[in-house]
Design goal:
This protein has helices spanning about 10-20, 25-45, 50-65, 140-145, 150-170, 175-180, 180-195, 215-255, 260-270, 285-299, and strands at about 70, 75-80, 85-90, 95, 100-110, 110-120, 130-140, 200-210. It has about 300 residues and is an alpha+beta fold. The strands form three sheets. It has a three-stranded antiparallel β-sheet. The chain has a three-stranded antiparallel β-sheet with strand order 6-7-8.
Length: about 300
């Protein structure tokens, strides 16, 4: 049974299941009742009073024996309290308790997931944000989870909310947007340190959504657009500079090779194609230009 108030609907369902008769209990009860009824009928033929007494006694014993049988699933552990005092941890599988004196609470040891509700926080650079996340944890020590905390699901959720606000308050907006994984790990360390005392183990904390004021979103959008335009301008300027350097190198190479300009000219003419509409007019033959250049060098 629950110790104090329990806020988790899933745990309340498990508590009800722990107190409800299972199929095995019903089958055992029916078998014992059938045996008791047969014995009471046989004795009742000789002495009706004894037959009735055996029937009533057998019915009570059948109910007590059936109530003493409990079953825990593979992922569950049963906390047995005898007259309100911790007795043992039982399960998984079938186990027996002392009816009337013992009570059982089943605890789920699988990894549980719960939401971290949206939290309002102010970053270190005074920007209001809303942030939510998801918390994953499991029960590592069943006895501590039941005995040391009233409702461990509710408690660890509140602890995660407080830790998330504290961590976000110590970071700038840029850090918050770019380092989600580090924030989750930091919150996990804080929560896990406290939760270990309650017999809980935190598997992970993930940030889901970060909400900012609309005017700040517009400013950040304009900033990102200006940054992209800046990078584009720088890239174009670097490309122009590289192209100019390559052209200068090509010019020096042609100047050093006497026939390079003539080959380049012929290549350009060949690239125009054999179309009749293309007319090439050379104002001065290349050979004359070369002769003039050589005479100039000699003088």
């Amino acid at each position: 049974m629950a110790i104090g108030q329990d806020f988790d609907p899933g745990q309340q369902l498990r508590l009800m299941q722990a107190g409800m008769p299972s199929f095995l209990q019903g089958a055992v009860f029916l078998v014992l009742v059938a045996i008791t009824a047969g014995l009471a009928a046989w004795v009742g033929q000789k002495d009706p009073v004894w037959g009735v007494g055996i029937g009533i006694t057998g019915l009570l014993l059948s109910a007590l024996i059936a109530a003493s049988i409990k079953v825990a699933n593979q992922w569950e552990r049963g906390i047995v309290l005898r007259l309100g005092e911790f007795k043992s941890i039982r399960g998984p599988g079938m186990f027996c308790i002392v009816p009337i004196f013992d009570r059982v609470r089943l605890v789920d040891t699988r990894v549980l997931a719960t939401d971290i509700p949206r939290q309002e926080a102010i970053t270190r650079d005074n920007v209001p944000v809303g942030i939510n996340g998801a918390l994953f944890f499991k029960v590592s020590k069943v006895e501590d989870a039941v005995m040391k905390i009233q409702d461990y699901v509710h408690a660890i959720s509140l602890l995660a909310q407080t830790a998330l606000r504290d961590v976000v308050g110590g970071m700038t907006l840029d850090e918050l947007l770019s380092e989600r994984e580090r924030i989750g790990k930091r919150v996990q360390e804080i929560v896990d340190k406290e939760a270990n005392q309650w017999g809980l183990e935190v598997s992970g904390i993930r940030l889901q959504d970060i909400e900012m004021p609309e005017d700040l979103k517009k400013i950040m959008s304009r900033q990102a657009s200006a940054e992209r335009e800046k990078r584009a301008t720088i890239t174009k300027a670097e490309g122009d500079k590289l192209a100019a350097d390559n052209l200068a190198d090509a010019a020096r190479t042609m100047a050093a090779s006497p026939g390079a300009m003539q080959l380049r000219t012929l290549q350009t003419i060949d690239g125009l194609g054999p179309t009749a509409s293309n007319t090439v007019l050379l104002a001065l033959p290349i050979e004359i230009m070369e002769m003039v250049r050589s005479l100039t060098k000699n003088t």
